[in-house]
């Protein structure tokens, strides 16, 4: 098919796929070694280092959860492309400034500001969902997910390598550059035929749900998203500290931490197509339910892990659980959301995910030598 005959929604999807990839890669590039970066900013005891790492990790998602509905409401009035540019440019600036953080308090502050400018991925989903033909929504959401997950997969590995060779600040600068590229691609290659919601239409959460036939299903998707993110991210703030302990402080801890952090993404990329096909045969509800159960079962043995190898195996299995969960949730939201409120629905979805990223790490408890208390469902 020639480029001229390619539908605009497909061209948008390709451009936004790269934007999702850049956002996923950049955001995950620094997270595995965030505690190691903080440890260079002062001589902190273990409990204080764990506390600062958790705060620096969670504050981005906390501010994101708070402001996402506001951006979603604005997107339904002004269009998704302006929100994509707002998010990408905002993260370009905030990610770059993070690399210049002189102390842990400035780091936490800038990461909080970064959260207020986030929202590229959920606006990308909303734009594609508003344009894609219904019969191709599952395929489109699956392809968009591969961009996000692919970025989250390669980001920690590249970030770990760069951090191990050039220091912990460089990945933040790379993140900023990637978001600048995403901004340019969005500006020049994404075209939106947007019809704004009339000003007389109310923008509260009840009004956003007014046109949804199966409201309970959508609320169930929000709850599932919160649980998925809480489980997956429950050990992320201290994963590099835990890897450091398991490696007895020998070798390239940043690189190994990046690989361990990336393993769920690898599993998701391989497992998502097969589990999506399984969902078509047995129904998405069964896949979603068993994915949640499997996630809880896999997390339990992490408490007893004594080697990096076993930690990697269990993290890989968590990625299989994610492959059963995330595309199903996004497809259901796409099918259920009316066009005039799709941005708001996806912003609430992002808030649920962000709250999960805050709740998960809050379940951590410090045990001797950074043993892990995990989240159970």
Task: Please explain how this structure is put together.
The chain has 377 residues and is mostly helical. The chain has 15 helices and no strands. Helix 3 runs antiparallel to helix 15 (342-362) and helix 12 runs antiparallel to helix 13. It is found in: Cell membrane.
State the low-pLDDT regions, or none: 365-377
Under CATH, the topology is which? Growth Hormone, Chain: A
* Largest sheet report: none
What's the structural domain tally?
A: 1
Principal-axis shape: globular
CATH homologous group name: MFS general substrate transporter like domains
Helix content: over 70%
Radius of gyration: 20 Å
Corresponding CATH architecture = Up-down Bundle
Order of helices and strands: HHHHHHHHHHHHHHH
Count of helical regions: 15
Mean pLDDT: 77
Report the top-level CATH class: Mainly Alpha
Q: What is the distance, rounded to the nearest whole angstrom, between the alpha carbons of the first and last residues?
A: 47 Å
* Helix-and-strand structural type: mainly alpha
Measured by DSSP, the beta-strand proportion falls in under 5%
């Amino acid at each position: 098919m020639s480029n001229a005959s390619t539908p605009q929604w497909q061209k948008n999807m390709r451009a936004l796929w790269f934007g999702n990839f850049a956002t996923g890669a950049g955001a995950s590039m620094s997270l595995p070694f965030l505690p190691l970066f903080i440890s260079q900013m002062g001589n902190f005891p273990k409990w204080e280092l764990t506390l600062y790492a958790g705060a620096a990790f969670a504050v981005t998602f906390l501010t994101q959860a708070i402001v996402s509905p506001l951006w979603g409401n604005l997107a339904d009035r002004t269009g998704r492309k302006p929100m994509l540019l707002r998010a990408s440019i905002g993260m370009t600036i905030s990610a770059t400034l993070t690399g210049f953080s002189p102390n842990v308090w400035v780091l936490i502050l800038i990461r909080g500001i970064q959260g207020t400018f986030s929202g590229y991925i959920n606006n990308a989903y909303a734009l594609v969902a508003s344009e894609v033909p219904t019969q191709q929504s599952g395929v489109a959401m699956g392809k968009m997910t591969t961009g996000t997950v692919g970025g989250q997969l390669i980001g920690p590995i590249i970030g770990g390598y760069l951090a191990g060779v050039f220091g912990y600040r460089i990945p933040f600068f790379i993140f900023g550059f990637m978001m600048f590229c995403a901004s340019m691609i969005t500006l020049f290659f994404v075209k939106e035929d947007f019809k704004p919601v009339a000003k007389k239409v109310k923008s509260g959460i009840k009004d956003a749900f007014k046109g949804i036939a199966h409201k309970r299903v959508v609320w169930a998707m929000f709850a599932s998203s919160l649980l998925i993110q809480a489980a997956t991210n429950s050990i992320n703030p201290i994963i590099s500290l835990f890897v450091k302990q398991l490696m007895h402080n020998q070798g390239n801890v940043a690189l190994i931490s990046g690989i361990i952090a990336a393993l769920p993404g690898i599993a998701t990329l391989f497992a998502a197509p097969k589990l999506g096909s399984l969902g078509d045969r047995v129904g998405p509800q069964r896949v979603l339910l068993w994915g949640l159960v499997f996630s809880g079962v896999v997390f339990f043995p992490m408490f007893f892990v004594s080697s990096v190898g076993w930690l990697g195996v269990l993290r890989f299995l968590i990625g299989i659980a994610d492959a059963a969960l995330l595309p199903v949730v996004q497809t259901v939201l796409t099918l259920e959301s009316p066009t005039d409120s799709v941005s708001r629905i996806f912003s609430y979805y992002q808030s649920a995910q962000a709250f999960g990223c805050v709740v998960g790490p809050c379940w951590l408890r410090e045990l001797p030598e950074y043993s892990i208390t995990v989240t159970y469902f």
